[in-house]
Amino acid sequence: MKRVLVLGSTGSIGTNTLNIIKYMPEDFVLCGVQAHSNKERLLDIAQKSKCPYLLTSEDNSAQAFQKLIDESKPDIVVNGISGAAGLLPSKIVLENGISLALANKETIVMAGDLIKELAYDKGAKIIPVDSEHSAIFCLTEKIGKENIAKIVITASGGPFRTLTKAELEQVTIEQALNHPTWQMGRKITVDSATLANKGLEVIEAAKLFDVTADKIEVVVHPQSLIHSLVRTNDGMLYAQISEPDMKHPILNALTWPENKQNYLEPFDLFDKTMTFFKPRLQDFPMLSYAFECVKFGKAYPIAFNAANEVAVNAFLEEKISFQAISRVVRSVLDKNWNHKIKNFDDVFAADEEARKYTAELI
To answer: Closest Cα to residue 306, out of 339, 329, 336?
Structure first.
């Protein structure tokens, strides 16, 4: 039985993880929970699950996260924290030699090389939970990295896939938060609408799987049934297919390297339609900016993530328009981000610099 610590326990990833633990009591036990701001919900979770170890964002210090780990003694930690705030907990988990089920893509986007090196040094595993990276991870494990020529990441296209450029200028917050296939938090839902989320996933894939930008392709697949594909050296495509339900990649991370029978409904191919389109990079430029950041490296991915977080927050506070998000990020990336990233202090410094500049720009 695995002891599971859930970070971001009141969000989408956390809620789905708790569901898995509830329905698979012979395999998992909840040993600790953390939440950003919903203290009432966190206390309710802890009480119902008889879990005595919990942490709220009232104390986001490294000491507080370390204490939570020391007390809860997890075998694996699910990091479902949203945004750059998830990097420090990921670092602390790996420093303790504990395997990390990682849904916080910013951890890899901001500090991929440092995080992977830390995991290697401590003998800990990083198992991706993003549905796309979980799919790539599984396909790579089965097919072999040496046999893969290209990674193909699928994108739903968000709620505005068919809107014209003029219509995109009139988008409201309510429209941006109405995703057609996934139920997610506000920030990631807006990211899906701008394709920034897919951009972050491109950067994450490049760093996680050690591939260059030209080895990654994005295809719009509105039904969100295929979660990613790989093209092998012989030109064949292999896909991972399941319903758009985050329980599947979470369960895969929790059980890896085993493949356990579970309570989830098996995927049924009947009466399914799957369509595929090229992304409209001119109308949704955040994706092309992400590919630039993969090529440039250094602090560019950090600046991309920081600028986007600040800009999305400004949009949600009605300070800027939907289309202004990408314009703000473009202006930030036009600065020089050729900073050498030698340690985590460099990461946090570049992140702070980009946030400050973005806020001033807005």
So the answer is: 329
pLDDT tens-digit series, residues 43-98: 899 999 999 998 986 677 899 999 999 999 999 999 999 899 999 999 999 999 99
Q: Which residues, listed in sequence order, are joined to residue 35 by a DSSP beta bridge? A: 56
Cα separation, 253 vs 306, in Å, equals 27
E runs forming strands in 225-270:
226-232, 237-241
Q: How far apart are CA 146 and CA 232, in angstroms?
A: 9
Tell me the residue type at 256. Answer: W
Torsion sign (Cα): 63, 67, 68, 73: positive
**Residue 35 in 3-state DSSP?**
strand
CA distance 259 to 27: 12
pLDDT in tens, 19-31: 999 999 999 999 9
Q: Please name which of 310, 313, 309, 361 lies closest in space to residue 335, comparing C-alpha atoms.
A: 361
Question: What backbone phi and psi angles, to 5 degrees, belong to 252?
Answer: -60, -40
Mean pLDDT of the region 310-332? 97
204: left (phi over 0), alpha (psi -120 to 50) or beta: alpha
Of 214, 211, 195, 228, the C-alpha closest to 304 is: 195
CA 306 – CA 350 distance, rounded (Å) = 9
Nearest CA among 326, 328, 329, 353 for reference residue 339: 353
Collapsed DSSP state (helix, strand, coil) of residue 128: strand
Measured in degrees and rounded to the nearest 5, phi and psi for residue 171 equal -65, 140
Residue 162: CB atoms within 10 A of its CB come to 10
The structure's pTM equals 0.95
Nearest to 227 by CA among 316, 153, 140, 144: 153
d(CA 95, CA 101): 14
Residue 38 to residue 149: CA distance in whole angstroms? 44
